[in-house]
Each structure stands twice: as structure tokens, then as C-alpha cells.
Design goal:
Blueprint (H helix, E strand, L loop, with lengths): L1 H21 L21 E8 L4 E8 L5 H8 L1 E3 L7 E4 H10 L7 H13 L10 H36 L35 H6 L1 H4 L11 E8 L4 E2 L18 H14 L16 H10 L15 E3 L1 E7 L4 E7 L6 H13 L7 E5 L2 H11 L9 E4 L2 H4 L4 H7 L14 H8 L4 H6 L2 H21 L1 H26 L3 H15 L10 H31 L5 H32 L14 H33 L5 H40 L44 H4 L1 H14 L1
Parallel strand pairs: 1-4, 5-10, 10-11
Antiparallel strand pairs: 1-2, 3-4, 5-8, 6-7, 8-9
Length: about 750
């Protein structure tokens, strides 16, 4: 292997490029030039069997110190199976065909070798020795020659561009070193090196996606780029006793193992410590909703085993792709679950290759929990203000409605119509390699994936024009659809956006919980507020007396005049809170409620109030999710059907929990009615109305679920808001969100 890498391949680069030029990219037969020996050394003859497409040919070569067998064979259009004394060579056009074939199907040297042998035998051309090993060897090193030739051409182009930048007074972060042989890896800014402070994305990113990182465009709603992140646990690799010889693709996209291990150690070191203070204030979604998201997705729980490390040394792949489905980086996962340090390593690598002020939209299945971990433990402190998190469209409906209100890309500014499913499309494109990659060598696996990605990028670049046309037409159609809903709502866009903000604020409030001491706590809070009110009244009365006293000291007068407006405002606020607490308890202004501290009725009342509020939120969320199903029932696209099925499954999973809440609420109502009947409740107590389980999910504005008789919840004193009660406004909100995106 060392002979191939250091001696043979560097000497074959120029002959190979000359062959391509003279044969017009292998369209014509090669006519090697006759060169005389100048080394005056010993010459010996070598017989080589050549494998062509449709016949075998034996040729004789004269070998000396200045004319190696490999160089002579390449000049004739063949490639040797061995570096120094080959007994067999393969037509370069045949190797080029096999290379392109293996980019479309799973690589299989045995199959193509056996097929070629049978094809030749059918024409009376027998070949005794096995062809597989030598054909596979020739194919491997021919691919290395192709990469070396591409590197040489790239290095010359880059060196020329650098000279132009220098002439124009600019600077470049890339330099090249071209040897006499023409094969030295260019000193290009590699992905695992931290570049200096950049004024534009690094050369590596510009080469990965010129549309995202090569121009000066900026997404209209403020993001500089959009990326998606996901893992695939079908791309495993069976554990082997030893690793195959190292084979590295020149355009490798894998993050080095040592970088991933560094993040793993950092996360393990930080997590046992105390979390950062006040991190929950920066989260827009209640903690209990995020907890439900974490339970719903195995991606959010790295302890759940998806692949056994007993049988696999590589359990999965995790990728970071741009919005045009170009792979930016991949991580080779070795843990049984989808742990967060893999995502952190990908995000960290991305920002090292971006200018300091760039902002990124990140789409991930469990972006909500990833953001919470980042804020809680400070994992991405240096980047967190430059990241807008969102959940991918297909997985959004597995999250709670409150989470969807904040993290759904169709409801987030900056994401447009990006769906975050680029990773899923990439996993599908390489699904044909699952069987092969599971049993091949470790380095062969990485090399094969790099080759597939490079080929996919090449095909994608050629189709970018059609891609943009298709996306533009879809965006225009969706804009017209959204604008139609806005017009039919008969409301101004500003009003609809305001209603959406109110809906998000209402549906992301933390839900009240039941408690065995809920009544006692409510009474104690009311007692505390009454004491604060009485104290404020005394202070205000004292300051008013000072102001009315003509003989009062001047300093006291100024002090009273300064503090009196503040105290009056505090009194007004305290009085409002006290009134709300008393109405929730069901007592009047003059009643003494110390005796209610141990009241069963008050305890039932407060718990029923908490249950009803949670039930309302759940039913609201379900109504909006069901609306998605009903709207998509008319669509026939495969992806839409998948999303619809996913949504229906998520809704059905949550239905039993909603019914359980309703039954618990009715049980509390029954207990309250019984206490009233026994005269064990306050004298003015009125039992709330029970909720009918039949037709529970057919939510209507006139249902008992919105009535608070006996509970006195002031939140809904003015009736349901327009975003909830008006079908016309709800349709307009959907339309304005779609139109804005």
C-alpha cells in the first residue's frame, strides 16, 4: 500500500491527465508515444494480460528504471493490478464504468468480476485465475489516481485564484503546495481545522453548497443559513477484530473521532454540575411540555438503546445538511442511543467555519430539548444567540401543541417553507448501501459514503436550476393559498398577527397542577395578600395625615408626597390580586377565611380549577392538530400522507389522557356537590357543571368546558378570544402564517 501511495500514484497523475486530453476523455483509442530508454540500465520484458470490455489481450512491455510498467500501461489506456510487476491490467474505460456503476448501486467486486468472467467465457475466452481480487485492487487504486488528478487540477486553480486575490490586494485563507510530481495534498483549509476569524464562510463550506455559503444573499426574515440535523440507526457497522488499512477520501465530510470524543467528555464533565440559573426564563415553552416531548422521542433520550454495541462498533450516522440537502458534515456514532454531544459537535464545527455574526436556523427532531440542554448547561454559550431552533415538519406533530406554537418551522420567522427533512432524503438515497456498509471494513465504509456524497453533490449542482424553479412555483402557489385565507377572514393582517401572538402567549403558559394542599395554599396566599393590603392602607393613611397637617415638618411632607403615589399603585395591584384569590375561593370581602385552611371543599375546588384549565389546553391543542389532519385529507402526495398518519397516531395516543382528565374533573365536581348537600361547604358555594364525556372532542364555544360557574376563573370572564371562538379568525391566522413564510 505504501508503494502505491508514495511511488506509483504520484508518477501516474500527469500520464493519466495527458491520456484524458489526447483521447478526448477516453472517447478515442489511445496511441502511446514511442519513447527511448535514457537510463542506460538493464531492460527486461514483462507479459501482461489486459482485460477489456469484450475480449482479453496479452501485451509485452519493456521495463527499465525510467519506464515503469505502471506508467506504460496508463499511457496505453490500462491500469495495473500491482504497483511494480503486474500480471494483469484492466482497461481504464472498464474501470471508469465500474466506478460509475458502484455510485448507483451497492459496490460488489465479486459480482462484476464473475459477470465479466462469464461474459468472456461465453465468447470462448477462458480465464483460469480468479479475477475478483486483482480487479478489485486495480479499481481501488484507479480511484486513488482519479482523486489525485482532481486534487492537482484544484490546486492549480486555487493557486491562480490566490494570485489574483493577492494582486487585487486581497488575502486568502488557502495556500497550495504543488510538487514536481504534481501530487501533494493541497494545504486547503480542512474541515477539522479551526479557521481564523472569517469575513465570509470558509472555502470548505463554499465548496459544499455554493448557494448557501458562496454568495451574498440573506434570507428575508433574518437568518443567514438554514441547516437540518438528524441521525440514522439503519447505517450500522458490524464489529470486527481489526480495522482495514486506512483509506481516506480527499473530500472527506466526517468529523474526526477525537473531536467527537472531546465533546463527549466535555458533556459528561459538565452535566453532573449544577445547572445555570434562570435558564428557564429564556425558554418559551413550559417545562412539563418539554418533558412530554422528551418522553415521546427516543432521540431526546440518549439512554434508550437503538443499536447494540455488543455487535456493532458503529451504531449510526448523524448528519448536518444545508437546506439544499447537501451534506456539510457527518458523525460516526458509537453509542447505543442518540446522545446530544454528537449534535453539539456538528453545530460547533459549523460555527467554526462561519463569520462571527452569521445566524443559523437549526431544524432537528427534538430541537426543543436540545435548546433546553444548551441553556441549562451552557454547552453552546458562544453560539446560542446566533441559533434559531425549530423542529422538522414530519416530527413536529409528535410534540405538544405548545411546543409546536414556538418551534414549528411554519410558525417560526426565518424558515420559510424549509421542512428540515433533508436528512431523511439523504438517508433514503444511501439506503441501497446498508447491507454492504454493515460488513465492509471501517475505512472502506467511510470512503464509500464520501464517494456517494461527492457524486450526489455533483448531480445536485447540475440540477440546481430546476430545483429553484420547482421551489419557486411551489412557494408562489402556497402564497396564493395563504393570501386567499387572509382575504376570506375579512380581518387586517396586523390583527391576525396580533391574535396569533395572543394565542401563543395563552397556549404556552404553564398549566396549574393538582395538589393535596391546594386549598390550604390558596387560603394562605389570600391571607398574605390581605395582610399586605392592610399594611399598605396604614402607610397610605399615615402619609395622607402628614400631607393634611399644616404643622408637619418639611422633610416629612416631601417624603410623604414622594412615596404616596407609589404606595397607592401598590395597593391597587394588591387589591386586584386579593379580589381574584377570594373569587377563586368563593368567599366575600368581609368573610374571615382562616377557618377554610383545612376545608375539603376548597381543596376540591382548587384542584378542579387546575384540572379544567389543563383540560382546556389539551382540547385546544387537539382541535388545532385535528385541523391539520382535516386540511391534509385532500392532499394525495406521499409525504403529506405520511405526515397525516403521523399526526393521527400522535392525536390518538393523547386521547386517553384527555379523557382521564375529564373523568378526574367530574369526580371532583361530584365530591363538591356531595359536600354542598351535607352543608360542609361555604354558605355561598355553587358546584361547577360536570363535563359530558360523550362528544368531549367535538369542542364548541357553547360547551360547558368554557363555563366557570362555581370556579370563578377570571381568565375567561370576557368570553373566549377571537383566535379560539371564531373559525374565520383561525382560518385567517393559518393564512397569514403561510403567507409570511
Amino acid at each position: 500500500m505504501n508503494t502505491w501511495t508514495t511511488e506509483v500514484i504520484p508518477k501516474l497523475v500527469h500520464p493519466y491527465l495527458r491520456l484524458l486530453r489526447e483521447t478526448q476523455n477516453l472517447q478515442q483509442e489511445s496511441v502511446p508515444a514511442i519513447t527511448e530508454c535514457v537510463c542506460l540500465g538493464s531492460v527486461h520484458s514483462l507479459s501482461v494480460l489486459v482485460v477489456r470490455f469484450d475480449y482479453l489481450e496479452r501485451i509485452s512491455l519493456s521495463i527499465c528504471a525510467c519506464q515503469s510498467a505502471a506508467v506504460q500501461l496508463v499511457e496505453r489506456g490500462f491500469f495495473p493490478c500491482a504497483p511494480l510487476q503486474p500480471s494483469l491490467a484492466v482497461d481504464i474505460r472498464l474501470l471508469d464504468f465500474a466506478t460509475r456503476l458502484f455510485l448507483k448501486i451497492s459496490p460488489n467486486n465479486t459480482a462484476i468480476s464473475n459477470t465479466l468472467t462469464e461474459f468472456l467465457e461465453a465468447r470462448g475466452l477462458s480465464y483460469v485465475d480468479p479475477l475478483r481480487r486483482r480487479f478489485g485492487n486495480a479499481l481501488q487504486w484507479f480511484n486513488s489516481l482519479q482523486h489525485a488528478a482532481t486534487q492537482l487540477v484544484d490546486s492549480l486553480i486555487t493557486a491562480h485564484c490566490d494570485s489574483l486575490d493577492t494582486t487585487d490586494g486581497g488575502s486568502s485563507d488557502t495556500t497550495e503546495d504543488v510538487s514536481e510530481e504534481g501530487y501533494k495534498s493541497p494545504k486547503r483549509q480542512r474541515f477539522h481545522e479551526e479557521p481564523p476569524s472569517l469575513s465570509r464562510p470558509s472555502e470548505y463550506l463554499r465548496s459544499r453548497c455554493p448557494i448557501c455559503f458562496g454568495g451574498n444573499s440573506r434570507i428575508s426574515e433574518g437568518l443567514d443559513s438554514i441547516v437540518c440535523n438528524d441521525a440514522c440507526f439503519t447505517q450500522k457497522h458490524t464489529k470486527q477484530h481489526y480495522r482495514d488499512p486506512q483509506r481516506t477520501h480527499p473530500n472527506m465530510v466526517f468529523i474526526p473521532e477525537e473531536d467527537v470524543e472531546a465533546w463527549e467528555n466535555f458533556v459528561a464533565e459538565v452535566r453532573p454540575s449544577r445547572p445555570m440559573k434562570d435558564f428557564e426564563d429564556r425558554l418559551k415553552v413550559p417545562g412539563d411540555v418539554l418533558d412530554d416531548c422528551e418522553k415521546s422521542f427516543t432521540a431526546a433520550d440518549g439512554t434508550r438503546e437503538k443499536a447494540s454495541t455488543q455487535f456493532f462498533d458503529s451504531t449510526a450516522l448523524m448528519g448536518l445538511l444545508c437546506r439544499h440537502d447537501h451534506v456539510l458534515w457527518l458523525v460516526n456514532m458509537t453509542s447505543p442511543g442518540e446522545r446530544q454531544h454528537y449534535a453539539f459537535s456538528l453545530i460547533d464545527m459549523l460555527f467554526k467555519h462561519l463569520p462571527p455574526m452569521w445566524t443559523v436556523g437549526l431544524l432537528y427532531d427534538v430541537a426543543c430539548t436540545l435548546k433546553r440542554s444548551s441553556l441549562k448547561w451552557g454547552f453552546l454559550d458562544q453560539y446560542i444567540d446566533h441559533i434559531t431552533f425549530a423542529i422538522s415538519v414530519f416530527h413536529a406533530y409528535g410534540h405538544g401543541w405548545a411546543c409546536q406554537c414556538v418551534y414549528h418551522p411554519r410558525k417560526c420567522k426565518g424558515f420559510g417553507l424549509s421542512d428540515g427533512e433533508g436528512c431523511e432524503r439523504f438517508w433514503h438515497s444511501i439506503s441501497k448501501l446498508i447491507a454492504y456498509l454493515r460488513v465492509c471494513g471501517h475505512h472502506t465504509r467511510l470512503y464509500t459514503l464520501d464517494s456517494q456524497i461527492h457524486q450526489s453533490d455533483h448531480e445536485s449542482l447540475q440540477g440546481f436550476g430546476k430545483w429553484i424553479v420547482r421551489k419557486w412555483q411551489n412557494a408562489e402557489a402556497r402564497r396564493i393559498e395563504g393570501n386567499k385565507d387572509v382575504v376570506e377572514s375579512q380581518e387586517l393582517p396586523e390583527f391576525l398577527r396580533q391574535q396569533w401572538e395572543e394565542q401563543v402567549a395563552s397556549q404556552t403558559k404553564p398549566l396549574p397542577r393538582q395538589s393535596q394542599t391546594a386549598g390550604k395554599k390558596a387560603v394562605e396566599e389570600a391571607v398574605r395578600l390581605q395582610k399586605v393590603r392592610d399594611s399598605l392602607v396604614k402607610h397610605i393613611s399615615r402619609f395622607e395625615d402628614i400631607i393634611c397637617d399644616v404643622d408637619a415638618d418639611g422633610v416629612d411632607y416631601i417624603d410623604a408626597e414622594e412615596h404616596l403615589p407609589i404606595l397607592r399603585k401598590q395597593l391597587e395591584t394588591c387589591q386586584n390580586k386579593l379580589s381574584q384569590s377570594k373569587r377563586a375561593l368563593g368567599v366575600n370581602d368581609h368573610a374571615s377565611f382562616q377557618h377554610l385552611t383545612k376545608s375539603k371543599y376548597i381543596n376540591y375546588r382548587m384542584n378542579a380549577r387546575a384540572l379544567k384549565m389543563r383540560l382546556r389546553m389539551r382540547l385546544r391543542a387537539r382541535k388545532f392538530e385535528r385541523n391539520r389532519i382535516e386540511r391534509s385529507a385532500r392532499r394525495q402526495q406521499y409525504n403529506e400522507r405520511k405526515i397525516q398518519d403521523q399526526t393521527e397516531d400522535s392525536v390518538k395516543r393523547r386521547d386517553p389522557g384527555i379523557q382521564k382528565l375529564a373523568r378526574s374533573y367530574n369526580k371532583h365536581v361530584s365530591d363538591m356537590q356531595e359536600l354542598i348537600r351535607r352543608r360542609q361547604a361555604p354558605w355561598n358555594a355553587v358546584a361547577p357543571l360536570p363535563i359530558a364525556l360523550k362528544g368531549l372532542f367535538n369542542v364548541d364555544v357553547d360547551d360547558n368546558i368554557w363555563e366557570d360557574i362555581g370556579l370563578n376563573d377570571d381568565d375567561d370572564d370576557e368570553g373566549p378570544p377571537p383566535w379560539l371562538s371564531s373559525e374565520r379568525v383561525r382560518k385567517g391566522i393559518k393564512g397569514i402564517l403561510l403567507r409570511d413564510r
